[in-house]
Each structure stands twice: as C-alpha cells, then as structure tokens.
Design brief:
The complex is a heterodimer of chains A (287) and B (280). Chain A has 287 residues and is an alpha/beta fold. Chain A is built from 11 helices and 10 strands. Chain B has one domain (2-279). In chain B, 70% of the residues lie in helices and 3% in strands. Chain B is mainly alpha-helical. The N and C termini of chain B lie far apart (52 Å). The chains are: A alpha/beta (287), B mainly alpha (280). The A-B interface holds A 52, 55, 57, 83-84, 87-90, 93, 95-98, 108-109, 112-113, 143, 157-158, 161 and B 177-178, 180-188, 202-203, 206-207, 210-211.
Chain lengths: 287, 280
C-alpha cells in the first residue's frame, strides 16, 4: 500500500459546457513514505491541478486519491484530515500572509486544527526554527519583511501543521540565488530531520537533479514518465521535445562528448561533474 | 463557483451590430430608452418591439442568452403588474370578487408596463452584449470629450472604468487562489454562524487588499514609464472612425424616433377604455 496514490485521476474544467478542458487524463501515481518527489512539466501540463487534488482542494471528475489506502473524499472527516496530513504550499505563498504578526500567521493552520494554546506555541516555534526565522522576528508584521523572509514565513505556516506530506508548488520562483539556496536548504533539512515525504513542483532541472529521489514528468495532462533522476535525464532529446530540458551541467557533458572527450553523459550534478572531470584529467596525467 | 460571475457581459460574435462604432450604439440605446418611455399607445410600443427584435436578430446572439438578461427583473415586472391591476380602475369590470376588482384597464396598463420594462432591459443589455468593455469606454471617452474643454476631466473617469473592467477577471482569479491557499491551512469559508463566516473572510480580504494596492502601484509606475500623463494629447491605437454604416445606424435611430412620434400623434393617446372597446 502506498502512502499516497491516485487511481485513474481525471479532472475536467468546466465539465458540461462547450468550454471544457481536460486538465488531467487518467493519472496514476504513487508516493511512498519518506520520498523526495519532484514533479516537472511545462506550463499547462497539469502539475498544479494534480497537486491541488492531493489535499482534496479539487474534487476529481473521475478516479480517486488514496491516502494510506483510504479515499480522501470518503467523508467530510477524511477530507478534513487530508487537508492537514497533506500540507500544500502554493506558488508565491507570501501573497497569502494576512495576520498582524508573523507568530499569528504561522499559528493560523494549527489554530484551525483545534490545538491547545501550548501545542500551537510549540509548533509555531519549531516551524520557525526549520525555516530559520529568529524569535525576535515573530512579533514583527509579516508585511515589513523582505521577499525571501516572507516566503519562509509562509512555508512555516504550512510546516506548522506538521503534515505527513509537504507539497511545495515552485517554492523558489521569483527569488534571488541566495533566497533560492536558503529555501532549498531548509526543505532538505526539514526532510532529513523529520523523515517526512516532500513533493516539489519545479521548473529547475538543476534543483530536481540535486534533491529528488523520484521524478514525475507531466506532459499534456498525462504522466509521461516516472523514475529516478538518472532514468529521467537519460533521454535529453525527449525532454526537450516536451518543453523541458536537462540540468546545465548535463548539457556541458553532452557537448564535451560530442567534441570527442571520453566523458560520461550521465552527469546530473556539479559534484558528479567534478568527479568525472577529475577522472578525465587523471587519465591524461594532469592533476 | 466564483468564476461564474460574468460582468460586462460581452458576447463576441461576427455581426453588423458588433462592428458598429460604440458611439452609434450608445446614441441608439439612449434614444431608444427615451422613446420607449415616450410611447403613449400600443401601436408605437409594438413598433419599438419590432425594432428591438430586428436588432436582436441581426446581432446573431442566441435568443436564450438575451432572455437570460430578463430573469433578474421578472420580480419587478410581476410586482408592477400586480400594482397596476389593483390600482387602475378604468374600463370594463371583468372580475369583482369580495374587495378585489379587476378591470380591463388594469390588465392593459399592466401589460403595457411589463412590455415597456422588458424592452428597456433587453435593448440596453444588447449594448453590452455587442460591445466589448474597452470599445464601450473608448466610445464614452470620445462622446464626453467636449466636457474636458470646460474643465471636467471625463477622460480620467473613462480610464478608471477601463482599468476596473480590465482587472475584474484578475481579481476573481486572485480570490480563487487565496481561498485555495487558506483552505489548505484549514480555513473554512462555508460553515459556521454568520459572524464566524464573516470573520473567516479576513484571511481572504487582507491579502486581496494588500495585493490590489501593490498592483495599483505597479500599474501606475508602468503607465508613467510609458509617459501617460492623463488625457491631454493622448491618441489611441485603434482610433474610432465613424464610417458609412455608423452614419446609417444614426439615421436609423432618428428614423425610429420620428416614427414613434408620428405613431403617438396619429394613433392617439393610450386610453384603456378606448383601446379595449375597439379591440372587441
């Protein structure tokens, strides 16, 4: 039994009108506990629609979503549980901050769960720690923070619900390199410390190659391929065909190989690239 | 759910009416509203009905869509009809039960009013159905251009209208997004007492307000960057041009006014008793 799985998930926007669009067509995925899943696909491939089904925000036109083997749409209480068990953090989450202080905003989710004041306090502080928000910032207004800080507060607002599965829709979009690095680092740390499942929707092949244990490629409302990083980036020409690409470092090694250098094309991170080059130089007696 | 809201109600089609200059359509609509009120007998009102039917037919908009616009005013029509029937006591008494007296005059007056209101609504919705919001505000801008000369800044008003219309879909999308995000954090917009539900809207409205102000700043900057400085000397990319068909439409409007005035004079003032008797 998978932790989270979809069975023949189909979703049609505007069903029954002449303007209907099939956003998801028979999607079957399964996600195991502790995985770091990346969902990639070009704009309009159905990624965002898919993740909005996973916590029950959208109700499938057809098919089911099973959380620990139970359909999340079985009853009102299973749906309510799914909202908290599967924490979804939207794209540009900083535009959803509303409270007068950072503390209160992070506490919104736990408060809605009906926890006690002591429990809420504990969760807010631990979530703030995960995202690197210092204690003195908790009493500030979220509207006074910088863009990157706001983003981290918003992510903390989801983490504070302590979901078993954390989903982040393009968590690094619109941030500067340092902000991106901070967000990716905190997601990685969060997963290592809690051992929880993380799903990210991403456009950055470099990030995907660095972190994901499983990659789901979406294309035209369907799952194109599911596999490990190696399996996915093996076929660079097919990825380009569906509007995606491979990590930059992979591109470099593909070009090197075309020029006749005896290097592997299966290089997906900078670390792997370094080792591959080292091997090449050592083979030629340069070190 | 929230996406069902249709404002502006533009219904794009390829028809002569759609292609007319918005000013010609504005003029006709205003003229028609005045003339429907001026109708004083059934003959002239029937003539207006034919004109209205002619316009609907040539606009190629499905009749069902047009009559849909009548739905919200059904209640108003019913209430006015009931009032007319119970207050107008001219003509032949048809039904006389206890204190209720229904006369032929009452029924005819009610019918007259109902037809008049329906004509007004249907014809004015035709304006928004066949004219895109941008074209409409463009037209208004030009119509009221002379006011700018006497110090009334009408251009700003039309610019505000254009921007407001432009941002309605954006705001609807934004509301949808923020609602989904807050729902993901367990917010409940559908259940609870009235006060509870009103309170539940705070997490929706504060970000919405904040984002709107932010967007307004960005828009203002973008407009300044493109040297927008109000209406003075501003030209438009798709400048409105009054072509022969627009002149024809204007002539048509005047013709409708003229015919209704003639019908009013020659067919006599609407008189319930007279009309009813002659009908028999």
């Amino acid at each position: 039994m998978s932790h989270l799985e979809t069975q023949n998930l189909t979703y049609v926007y505007g069903a029954g009108t002449p303007f209907k669009i099939t956003a998801l067509d028979n999607v079957n995925i399964n996600i195991e506990k502790g995985e770091f899943v990346a969902i990639i696909g070009h704009t309009g491939s159905g990624k965002s629609t898919l993740v909005q089904h996973l916590n029950g925000l959208l109700k499938p036109t057809n098919g089911e979503i099973l959380l620990d083997g139970e359909s999340i749409h079985k009853s009102k209480s299973t749906l309510f549980d799914a909202r908290f068990k599967v924490g979804l953090c939207f794209q540009y989450p900083e535009y959803q901050l509303f409270e007068s202080t950072v503390y209160k905003d992070i506490a919104f989710g736990p408060y809605n769960m009906g926890l006690t004041v002591a429990e809420i306090d504990e969760r807010v502080r631990s979530a703030a720690k995960y995202v690197g928000i210092p204690d003195e910032m908790l009493s500030k207004s979220p509207f006074d923070l910088s863009g990157g800080e706001k983003r981290r507060v918003a992510i903390a607002g989801v983490i504070s619900m302590e979901p078993e599965i954390l989903i982040l829709d393009e968590p690094t979009s619109g941030l500067d390199p340092r902000g991106r690095e901070q967000i990716l680092e905190l997601i990685k740390n969060y997963r290592e410390k809690t051992g929880k499942t993380v799903i990210i929707v991403s456009h950055s092949m470099d990030d995907v190659a660095r972190f994901a244990t499983k990659v789901i490629v979406m294309n035209e409302s369907n799952v194109e391929k599911i596999g490990t990083v190696d399996e996915i980036f093996e076929n660079s020409s097919r990825l380009r065909e569906i509007g995606l690409s491979v990590p930059q470092i992979t591109d470099v090694f593909i070009k090197l190989r075309e020029k006749g250098y005896p290097v592997s094309e299966k290089v997906y991170t900078v670390e792997q690239g370094y080792l591959e080059l080292k091997k090449l130089f050592e083979g030629r007696g340069i070190s | 759910m929230i996406k069902d809201i249709t404002l502006g109600q533009y219904f794009p089609m390829d028809s002569l009416i759609h292609k007319l200059d918005p000013r010609a359509k504005l003029f006709f609509t205003v003229a028609f509203i005045v003339i429907v009120f001026a109708c004083n007998n059934f003959v002239s009102l029937f003539f207006c009905f034919i004109v209205s039917a002619l316009i609907i037919a040539s606009s190629k908009i499905p009749l069902k869509t047009v009559t849909k616009g009548l739905k919200p005013i059904i209640l108003i029509v019913v209430i006015t009809s009931v009032l007319q029937i119970s207050y107008v006591k001219t003509g032949v008494v048809l039904i006389d039960v206890w204190k209720i007296q229904i006369t032929s005059g009452g029924i005819l007056t009610a019918l007259f009013m109902a037809l008049r209101i329906s004509l007004l609504i249907v014809t004015s919705t035709m304006l928004t159905y066949t004219t895109s919001p941008t074209a409409l505000t463009n037209g208004l801008d030009r119509v009221f251009a002379p006011f700018n000369k006497i110090g009334i800044d009408f251009h700003t008003v039309t610019m505000i209208m254009t921007i407001a219309l432009r941002f309605i879909p954006t705001l609807i999308e934004e509301v949808d997004k923020i609602m989904s995000a807050q729902k993901s954090r367990g917010a409940n917009f559908e259940q609870g007492s009235l006060i509870k539900r009103a309170k539940a809207l705070i997490p929706l409205f504060i970000p919405l307000l904040f984002n709107s102000i932010r967007r307004a700043y960005e828009l203002a900057n973008a407009m300044t960057c493109r040297c927008y400085n109000g209406g003075k000397g501003k030209t438009t990319m798709n400048a409105l041009k009054y072509s022969s068909k627009d002149y024809l439409a204007t002539v048509f409007s005047f013709a409708v006014i003229g015919i209704v005035i003639l019908l009013n004079i020659y067919c006599g003032e609407y008189n319930a008793e007279f009309t009813f008797n002659s009908a028999i």
